[in-house]
Design goal:
With 258 residues, the protein is an alpha/beta fold. The protein is 32% helix and 28% strand. The chain has eight helices and 13 strands. A hairpin with a 2-residue loop joins strand 8 and strand 9. The two termini are 29 Å apart.
């Protein structure tokens, strides 16, 4: 995970030494799949937000491999967003990544969904990545993104939207990113107004005040790019060691423990 001062960089290398990376992101409602050769995105596809990942994930993998003229056996590294995010989506994505990697005898890279959200939003001194957490809450974490390096500035948490102003209200310039930011855009707008801070949606990362980054439909591209650094740094894992970071108990677990 990416708490503390751990940093993730986007590394450049020649194509001759670059790994072929298949990246899966099933933590969000639509999800996405991407194929990258080192830092170069060869193909990517967004999923269907109205359908279960189990319905189209394998088909989407097959489609991008075909579009790139590659086969599954060509893949060097299987990368996956491990959470936080949708409980069901994460289980489907990680089970798929594990089974494919095991069948090919390859390793995996585990990436924070929130770090991928921040990376996809572009360079920023302070980016708060937000994803829906259920029960009216959001998953939140703040990052700095500079020169392709994603640095965690706090720990990931699940929080009620009104409390975001308590956690991040001291900062006059923030880039909000992710599906959670768009779902809570009116809350963020009201909080900015209460602090006399300029607020813009679909703005660039360098806008003064509080701004919301444009929607990210192919988050797997950021997962693939971050996975490249994990590969070069040797931070890859065996398929059986790929685990989800749910960050909070599921609704069923909460109900059973009540």
């Amino acid at each position: 995970m990416f708490d503390g001062d751990k940093r993730i960089g986007l590394v450049s290398m020649t194509n001759s030494s670059a790994p072929l990376i298949l990246a899966l992101e099933t933590a969000t409602r639509a999800g996405s799949v991407s194929l990258a050769l080192g830092p170069e995105i060869l193909a990517s596809i967004a999923g269907n937000a109205s359908s279960s990942h189990s319905n189209d994930l394998i088909e989407n993998i097959e489609n991008i491999l075909r579009d790139a003229g590659r086969e599954l056996r060509d893949v060097d590294l299987f990368a996956a967003a491990v959470g936080p995010g949708s409980f069901t989506g994460l289980r489907i994505g990680l089970a798929t990544a594990k089974s494919l990697a095991m069948s090919m005898g390859k390793q995996c890279a585990a990436l924070s969904t929130l770090a991928a959200v921040a990376a996809a939003a572009g360079e920023s001194t302070r980016t708060v990545a937000l994803l829906p957490a259920g029960r009216g809450e959001v998953f939140a974490q703040m990052f700095a993104v500079k020169d392709g390096v994603v640095s965690a500035l706090d720990s990931a948490t699940h929080i009620a939207p009104p409390a975001l102003s308590v956690r991040y209200g001291e900062f006059q310039t923030l880039l909000w990113a992710g599906e959670g930011a768009h779902l809570q855009i009116e809350v963020l707008r009201d909080q900015a107004k209460a602090r006399g801070v300029n607020f813009q949606s679909n703005a660039s990362p360098h806008t003064d005040g509080w701004s919301v980054a444009p929607p990210q439909t192919k988050l797997a591209e950021a997962v693939a790019k971050l996975a490249l650094t994990e590969w070069q740094a040797g931070r890859v894992v065996n398929p059986q060691d790929l685990h989800a970071n749910y960050l909070r108990a599921s609704d069923a677990e909460i109900k059973n423990n009540a």
